[in-house]
Amino acid sequence: MTIDSTESALSATTSCGAPTAAVALFRSLGDPARLAILRRLAEGEARVTDLVSCVGLAQSTVSAHLACLRDCGLITSRPQGRATLHSLARPELLDLLASAEQLLAATGDAVDLCPTYGSNSIGPEESTR
């Protein structure tokens, strides 16, 4: 992605200046199950049953996550016989995931220690209760 296309993609912003499309993208990537599904699809096409065994969730839950990813334009689906094969829609997603892994390696996984979003934190939803 070039700087011009990045600026264009980030031009629509919320009232605080956060890019709305970027917020939606990172929210779609922020769910552990959806991220696991995307990592599996990075290896190649998969059926729902393949993804169910990979992420360990119910078929209906995996299907709901696939619908979210498809609605966000991150995956595509095509019928094959009685099954449907799912795959990544854009190769740039692999670059994004690789960049995230490099960033995590460079920061020593400090994000995991973040008091708001880290693995031992109380999430924003829970902190308001």
UniProtKB/TrEMBL annotation:
Domain HTH arsR-type span(s) in chain numbering: 14-108
Keyword ATP-binding assigned: no
Cited SUPFAM superfamilies: Winged helix' DNA-binding domain
UniProtKB keywords: DNA-binding, Transcription, Transcription regulation
Keyword flag Repeat: no
GO molecular function, one term: DNA binding
Protein name as annotated: ArsR family transcriptional regulator
